Amino acid sequence: MLAVAALSRGAQAAAAAGGALELTAVLDPLSKEAQRAAPPPLGLSVTLHLNPSLQIDKFPLESFYRYVVSLEPSFDNAGRSLSPQLDRALFSSLRTPQVLTLHVDAPEAWLLECTEAAYDMDNLRLAELGERRRPSRRRDGDRRTVSAVYELASLLITGSCEDVGSRHPPNGLQLLLGTTAQPHATDTLVMRRRTGEPRRRPSVGWTVFTLRTAPALLAAGHSTRAFRGGMQRIDPATLTDAAAVRVTMADFTGANILLLAQKRPGLES
């Protein structure tokens, strides 16, 4: 086993001040977990133990990995916070004939979109660079350089819905997701074997779930005609006709909720 003691700038200051916290990690240097390891921004003294596997049948890593998000805030000369769009990953001297795919290792609740790219980032063959170029708002200064910009397009709100009478998901129940100003931003369906994943633009604040009230759907016997909704941990006897559930989007980690639904009297069948 190889032991390496490493101190970041914040950790050096903490060690000089007699900091009491120390982080010790044991990593296989050829593992995916080791690829994701980044310096902790907490000002800790860090001791890293490298524990490689002694028997390797094939090379365990098949990807190049870079950590993008800055661990410390950056400011310009005027003291203004720099835009997070300046964060970037740089892969240099990639000399490989294989087809490469650029994948963003992001939180599960993030839906990212590639907004600028001159090449197909899912099928990138560096040996053929420049032959399959696509129009782009951004031009690469060098034919041997490929650049792409990714944007956080939506956040996922996931969860489950249960009919308090049958204790089963109300299959086909239609839900609307929106805000007070925009009640119908997107929608989803409750399915028996799958959790609906409504999407919304990435902004914090209040999000409201409601049951669909479109007249055409009411005639079909769905949603608010047959169901009334409520929130988690509410006694089914207290469910009201105000079928709206407020969800707090306090950060960018998404949300997971439980919805309770109950059929109106006389519409149980």
In CATH, the architecture of the domain at 155-263 is Sandwich
CATH homologous superfamily assignment of the domain at 155-263? Transthyretin/hydroxyisourate hydrolase domain
Largest sheet: 5 strands, mixed
Helical content band: under 10%
Gyration radius over CA: 25 Å
Summing up helix and strand content along with how strands pair, one would put the structural category as: mainly beta
What is the count of DSSP helices, taking H or I runs of 4+ residues?
Answer: 3
CATH uppermost class of the domain at 155-263: Mainly Beta
Mean of all residue-level pLDDT scores: 69
Distance between the termini: 66 Å
Q: What's the β-strand tally?
A: 12
Enumerate the spans where pLDDT stays under 50 for 5 or more consecutive residues: 1-11, 132-142, 212-234
Name the helix and strand elements from N-terminus to C-terminus, one letter apiece.
EHEHEEEEEEEHEEE
Described by the principal axes of the CA atoms, the overall outline is extended
Q: Could you tell me the CATH topology label of the domain at 155-263.
A: Immunoglobulin-like
How large is the share of residues in beta strands? 25-35%
GO molecular function: UDP-glucose:glycoprotein glucosyltransferase activity; unfolded protein binding
Protein name: TGF-beta propeptide domain-containing protein
Organism: Emiliania huxleyi (strain CCMP1516)
GO cellular component, one term: endoplasmic reticulum
